[in-house]
Specification:
209 residues; two-stranded antiparallel sheet; 10 helices; 4% strand
Length: 209
């Protein structure tokens, strides 16, 4: 997989490729949170500003990120959000695009070897790793932070946006919207040791959560 192909993948696409649909939605929500467009409260997510964010040099939103913002017309936990019609459509389209690029198998829904190479390349190229440097996360590039979470899952999310992660119900238990259905973990990743622990896309494509 060439570097140019790697650059075409947004962080939410990387999350979909590595961890499945719920990973993709969680990372899309984080990307919006880093723009000031989504906040968490009581185990749910809600819009907190325009989807374009407050900066003028921000990259355009990926369709999955737009779908998250639009689908939060009322607060929702992750599971409820994923069931909303536009979210389901965009997830299906994003997955179809990864299949068309030769990164995913249609059935069974697993990563191809090209996808494994791509994820390895991304991990080698990403200048950030866990534990994060002493800089406060908000002073680090938002796109790199989102990509770190896409590659490393909950450990990275808790390092990047711990308050949002807990208030939005993306880690742990206790969110009122999806009580008892939230993850103990999001599946594979490098963890603090830097070693990859994922074992494929998963037999059902459910991924992280």
């Amino acid at each position: 997989m060439s570097g140019s192909a790697t650059k075409r993948l947004a962080s939410c696409e990387v999350a979909l490729l590595r961890g499945g649909p719920r990973a993709a939605v969680a990372v899309a929500a984080l990307a919006l949170h880093l723009r000031g467009a989504v906040a968490g409260r009581g185990g749910t997510m809600r819009t907190s500003g325009p989807s374009g964010g407050v900066g003028h040099s921000l990259p355009p939103l990926h369709p999955l990120e737009k779908a998250v913002h639009t689908s939060l017309y009322r607060p929702a936990g992750l599971r409820e959000l994923m069931e909303r019609p536009r979210m389901r459509r965009e997830l299906a389209e994003a997955r179809a695009e990864l299949i068309a690029q030769g990164l995913l198998r249609r059935f069974p829904p697993r990563r191809k070897q090209a996808a494994r190479r791509l994820l390895t390349d991304l991990r080698e190229q990403l200048p950030l790793s866990l534990p994060l440097p002493d800089d406060e996360p908000e002073n680090l590039p938002a796109d790199q932070l989102a990509l770190l979470v896409a590659l490393d899952g909950p450990a990275a999310l808790l390092a990047v946006a711990p308050r949002f992660a807990r208030q939005a119900g993306l880690v742990g238990r206790g969110g009122r919207a999806d009580k008892g259905l939230l993850p103990h973990s999001w599946g594979g990743g490098r963890g603090l040791s830097g070693h990859t622990t994922d074992d494929g896309f998963g037999p059902t494509g459910s991924g992280w959560i």
